[in-house]
Design goal:
CATH topology of the largest domain: 2-enoyl-CoA Hydratase, Chain A, domain 1
Number of helices: 11
Structural class: alpha/beta
CATH superfamily of the largest domain: 2-enoyl-CoA Hydratase, Chain A, domain 1
Oligomer: single chain
Strand content: 15-25%
Helix content: 40-55%
Distance between the termini: 42 Å
Shape: globular
Largest sheet: 6 strands, mixed
CATH architecture of the largest domain: Alpha-Beta Complex
Order of helices and strands: EEHEEHHEEHEEHHEHEHHHH
Radius of gyration: 20 Å
Length: 263
C-alpha cells in the first residue's frame, strides 16, 4: 500500500492528523478549541484511514488521541448538527466504530480530559483504553434533552455491560478515571504526561509473531460478535491456527527455543 493512504491529513490545520512511523499509526483528533468534538468529515477520515490498515501488514499498532489538554473528545459537535450539516441517514459514529473494531492490528485509545458521548462510544471500540488521572467519562444525552442512537446504546452495552450502561444512560453518571477503571471503561490509569510511556510498555511486541497477534485478535472479535458455534463457524478460525502451525514464524520460534535450551 502506498504511504499516501496514511498521509492524507498530516497538516496541523487538519481536523484529523495521521502519522505512520515505527510501525505505529498515530491518529490525533485535532479540534482542541472545540474540545475535539466529532464532525462527519473527521469520522469519515477515521473510517477511511483505519480501514486502509487491513491491507498493510507492516502496522503493529493504531492509536487515537485528542489534541490539547482539555479533551479526548467532548462528543459529536452539536453546532454541526444544529446547522444541518449531518445526513440523518448516515451513522458516522457507527461506521468509524466498525472500522476500528475491524482493524487487524491492536488498537489503543489514549484519553486525557473529557471523553463524552460519541467520543466515549468511539473510544470503547478500541482494544484498550489508557487514560490519565484527570480523564472523565459520561454520556450527557439527558442533559441535552436528547435520546442517544439506539445502535450506539447497543454498542456501549456490549462494551461495558448492562449495569454500567444503565448508570451512563439512565442516571447520567459521570465517571472519573478511577471509577472508570473499576467499571471496566478503561484498561489503565496513568499520571499526567504518562500516556506515551504506557503505549511503549503495553505495545511492546518484541519477539511476538505479528500473524499470531492479529489472528488472536480476529478470533476474539469473531467470538464476541457471533453466537453461532456450528462446524462452519469454527472452520475459518481453525484455519488461522493451521496456517500458523505450518508458518515460517512458528518454525523459527521453536528452533530458537530448542537451541536456547541446549546452551
Amino acid at each position: 500500500m502506498a504511504p499516501t493512504e496514511f498521509d492524507v491529513a498530516t497538516s496541523p490545520a487538519s481536523e484529523l492528523i495521521s502519522d505512520l512511523r515505527s510501525r505505529r499509526l498515530r491518529l490525533i483528533l485535532n479540534r482542541p478549541n472545540a474540545r475535539n468534538a466529532l464532525t462527519p468529515a473527521l469520522l469519515d477520515g477515521i473510517s477511511r484511514i483505519v480501514s486502509a490498515t487491513e491491507a498493510n501488514e507492516d502496522i503493529d499498532l493504531v492509536t487515537l488521541e485528542g489534541a490539547g489538554q482539555q479533551a479526548f473528545s467532548a462528543g459529536f459537535d452539536i453546532k454541526v448538527m444544529a446547522s444541518g450539516g449531518v445526513d440523518p441517514k448516515r451513522d458516522y459514529v457507527g461506521d468509524a466504530v466498525n472500522a476500528i473494531r475491524s482493524c487487524p492490528a491492536p488498537t489503543i485509545a489514549l484519553i486525557d480530559g473529557y471523553c463524552f458521548g460519541a467520543g466515549l462510544d468511539l473510544a470503547l471500540a478500541f482494544d484498550f483504553r489508557i487514560a490519565t488521572a484527570r480523564a472523565s467519562f459520561a454520556i450527557p444525552a439527558n442533559r441535552l434533552g436528547t435520546v442517544y442512537d439506539p445502535k450506539g446504546v447497543s454498542r456501549i452495552i456490549g462494551a461495558t455491560g448492562a449495569a454500567t450502561a444503565r448508570r451512563l444512560f439512565i442516571l447520567g453518571k459521570r465517571f472519573d478515571a478511577n471509577e472508570a477503571m473499576a467499571a471496566g471503561l478503561i484498561s489503565l490509569v496513568v499520571d499526567e504526561g504518562g500516556l506515551e510511556q504506557a503505549v511503549a510498555d503495553w505495545a511492546d511486541m518484541t519477539g511476538q509473531s505479528r500473524y499470531a497477534v492479529r489472528s488472536h485478535k480476529r478470533i476474539i472479535q469473531t467470538l464476541l460478535a457471533q453466537a453461532d458455534r456450528s462446524d462452519e463457524f469454527w472452520m475459518p478460525l481453525q484455519a488461522l491456527r493451521a496456517k500458523a502451525l505450518d508458518g515460517k514464524e512458528r518454525h523459527q520460534a521453536i528452533n530458537t527455543f530448542i537451541n536456547r535450551g541446549k546452551r
